[in-house]
Amino acid sequence: MIPHNWQRTKIVCTLGPATDPPGVIEQLIECGMDVARVNASHGGHADHARRIERVRNAANMLGQPVAILIDLPGPKFRIGDLPDNFYKLAEGEMITLIAEDSFVKEVGGNAEERSRLLPVRDPELLPALRAGESVFLADGSIELCVRITAAAGVHCEVIIGGTVRSGSGINVPESVLSEMVPTDDDRQHLAFAVAQEVEWVGVSFVQSAGDLARVRACLPSGAGERPLLMAKIEKRQALADLDAIVEASDGVMVARGDLGVETDLAEIPVVQKRIIAAANARGRPVITATQMLESMVEREHPTRAEATDVANAVLDGTDAVMLSAETAIGRFPVAAVRFLARVLAATEKGYSLRMAYDRMRATDIPSSPDNPDNALSFAACQLAARLGARAIVVPAHTMAAALAIARFRPQAPLVVVASSMRLYRSLALVRGVSPLLSIAASDTGTGTGTGPQACLIQAGEWLVAQGLAEPGDQVVLVSASSSACERADTLRTIRLSRDGGTG
Predict the structure, then answer these.
(1) Residues near 191 by Cβ (< 8 Å), separated by ≥ 6?
(2) Cβ distance 146 to 135 under 8 Å?
(3) Please, which residues bridge with residue 490 across strands?
(4) Structure confidence at residue 445 as a pLDDT band (50, 70, 90)
(5) Boundaries of each Pyruvate kinase barrel domain copy (predicted)?
């Protein structure tokens, strides 16, 4: 087991060619990767399965919980495969969008002809485009303007140039083209995700709570076999139904790439705060994604603005920050994670329970600490802060048990002793949580969990071994017992004994 450098905010890394060399996955975990993201829009299932297996093996070897998040492609238009995997488009030049099949058949090896054409994977997009419309590529970094539409293709002028890569997204904000979620491709990827026993599935281009309901209907009926659903907020329509979407989800992603194209870019900072606040209020884990350290795709050191962006996401209350191209295709994937961890650590030094408490109280929502259902969880956080407890320990059989406390953002580590491997890994995404796999679960593979006292002993030994506590330090134990007739929640403070147990 690697030394545990506890930080509240979690790190999500996208897998790709840059993470394939031997030893890179291990280094990412050692530097702080908590969640490995697989983008189903790129590559095949064989590649994805190989990368997932490598993450699982590395995480087991290093004794760290690492969750797997698979992003569904959703109803998004994309550039097809480019001969050299990328084109550089210059401002003012004319290019033609053409169906990918036609591109392959008609262009062949003619390099000069290829340079003026961009293949589109979804040919139904082309006849829907109209002269004067803006077309954005690569998360809005490239802008085209449609000049002429013809049967052979759509001729566009490059308004803002840049590098476009195979599989880059295409956004047409003025178009009403929209396929229902989930798509046929999404269903195939969902089946793959279930077979791989991944913990999280990112649902792209969610526009309503109904989208999540349709995706959930495609999953197995057994609750233990279901991956958790992460609603990616990247459409204008989603903002209109935000509260219902958050309520229907298991987690939320602020997907700033497409969101910055679908909405006014100037409004993204405020929209980000709104989405994070909505997720915090309902106790849903939230990821802030896209261009966190974009300059590190090509350069070894980030900009000051990027460091500030990461810090602001932490102060907004995000559970995790995500690296996309930085780790998937970037030149410095390990350095990017290492720097991200430094920013998180520096930012969290100024964190206070009062900040979280005020944010929760400021919003009139069911998860307010004044709600009786949340009283015990909020009290545990307050008690730990007042006593200077080294940790809050929670035996848990479900994600809800951990989130009930994590939603209040305690200052101390929240050590959740999980009763199953799936829960253990799933919790790696949640801010402030240090998951432990209960001894019963590790012995049996699935486990039914252990009693509060056994979990406390296990957590105490782990805290002392990791240097997060010393014998004599206090911890807060939150436990629940249930029977057919009653349920009793308990809250206790306990001192760790010299061997790391309780005394």
Answers:
(1) none
(2) yes
(3) 479
(4) very low
(5) 7-337
On whether the CB atoms of residues 194 and 105 are closer than 8 A, the answer is: no
439 neighbors 453 (Cβ within 8 angstroms): no
Q: Which fold has domain 77-171?
A: M1 Pyruvate Kinase; Domain 3 (2.40.33)
For the chain, counts of helices (H) and of strands (E) = 19, 22
Bridge pairing between strands 67-71 and 200-203: parallel
CB burial of 281-315 (b: ≥16 within 10 Å; e: otherwise) equals bbbbbbbbbbbbbbbbbeeeebeeebbebbbebbe
Give the residue extent of every domain in the chain: 10-74+182-350, 77-171, 355-495
Within 10 A of 204 (CB to CB), how many other CB atoms are there? 27
Residue 322 and residue 14 in contact, taking contact as beta carbons nearer than 8 Å: yes
Residues 103 and 426: their CA atoms lie apart, in Å, by 42
Query: For the chain, percent helix, then strand, then coil, each to nearest 5?
Result: 40, 25, 35
Size of the chain, expressed as the number of residues it contains:
503
Question: At how many degrees (to 10) do helices 45-62 and 24-31 cross?
Answer: 50
Residue type at position 326: E
Average pLDDT over residues 325-346: 96
Q: 63 near 1, Cβ under 8 Å?
A: yes
Q: What is the CA radius of gyration of the chain?
A: 24
Q: What is the pLDDT of residue 484?
A: 30
Pick the CATH number of 355-495 from 1.20.140.10, 3.40.1380.20, 3.40.50.300, 1.10.1660.10: 3.40.1380.20
CA-CA-CA-CA dihedral for 173, 40, 28, 399, to nearest 10: 90
pLDDT for 196 equals: 96
User: Is there a contact between 389 and 383 (Cβ–Cβ < 8 Å)?
Assistant: yes
